[in-house]
Amino acid sequence: MNIQQLRYVVAIANSGTFREAATNLYVSQPSLSVAVKDLEDELGFKIFNRTTSGTHLTQRGRVFFEKAQKLVGSFDSFENQYTQSSGKGREFSISSQHYDFLAPLMTRFSEKYPEFRHFRIFESTTVQILDEVIDGHSELGIVYLSPQNEEGIRRKMEKQGLEAIDLIGFQTHIYLGKHHRLASKPSLTLDDLTGLPAVLFTQEKDEYLYYSENLVDRTESSLIYKVTDRATLNGILERTDAFATGSGFLDSASVNGITVIPLEGATDNKLVYVKRAEMALSSCAQKFVEVMTAYFSD
Question: Confidence band (pLDDT; 50, 70, 90) for 254?
Fold first, then answer.
């Protein structure tokens, strides 16, 4: 018995067919069938029942699958953390805070490098983004640093063996619906925002204030909406007099009905990408960084 055989069992059980599992694993179906048959012979019981309607776990196979799934997950996490991905035949994954520029950035990368065909874009909380890179599930993480959060985030990165590489500095921008009474102003101040409802992205724990994606203090807000995705955030902005904060890197083709206005004086922010320290990037990640750098230069 070996980890590859366990990975095959997990893939077949999750997909429901040998054919789909073989495609997902980049192996031939006969090779997959032989490996599972050898494992069943070694174990002394059948893991799968093969029928015309698909492949189903036997009763003993289900117990075996549940244990195998835990082992494969732990092994993959360990392998990702301590080995360098070749970037070939595997999914390229990035994790990021919630940014409107992700869609145009990723499509630009795909157009320039069509040989890379499998992507995972994981938008989540700051803590999960850093943990994704720490555990090797994502090769890169995209976050912002500000005078308010930089010390805490860098402390976690240093402790966990991560490093941050600067992409571009930016000024805090206020996001409003186009109908908003402040939408015609060329710039805004904190006083303009006093008493307005606010929309912000939910983080795991409120005590981790330096992990927040919020670029201004919300204590003077009359109402606070906490959301987990950009579509909901934009929908609230379009329908209320609430505001949100962001980088100002807004793709006009991605968001309609939103006005973005710079906040006076809030210029000390920067976007960075996070990677594991002392770990070389795969060729796919290197090319993605090149495209990302060029995107922000444009």
Answer: low
Q: Give 170-266's CATH code, choosing from 3.65.10.20, 3.40.190.290, 3.75.10.10, 3.40.30.10.
A: 3.40.190.290
Q: What is the pTM of this model?
A: 0.69
Beta-carbon count within 10 A of 223 CB:
12
Sequence spans of domains, the chain: 3-82, 92-168+270-297, 170-266
Residue 19 confidence class, pLDDT cut points 50, 70, 90: confident
Q: Helix or strand or coil: residue 246?
A: strand
Asked if 258 contacts 238 with a C-beta cutoff of 8 angstroms, the reply is yes
Q: Looking at the domain covering 92-168+270-297, what would its CATH class be? A: alpha beta
| Tens-place pLDDT, residues 234-249 | 899 999 999 999 888 8
Q: Which CATH code for domain 3-82?
A: 1.10.10.10
Query: DSSP alpha helices (H): ranges in the chain?
Result: 3-15, 18-25, 29-43, 59-82, 102-112, 126-134, 150-159, 190-193, 230-239, 283-297
**For the chain, percent helix, then strand, then coil, each to nearest 5?**
40, 20, 35
Tokens of 148: 């308010």
Question: 174 with 197: CB under 8 angstroms?
Answer: no
Distances (CA, A) of 265 to 32, 90, 170, 258: 61, 44, 11, 22
Q: What is the pLDDT of residues 199-231, one digit of tens each?
A: 988 876 544 555 666 667 777 788 989 898 888
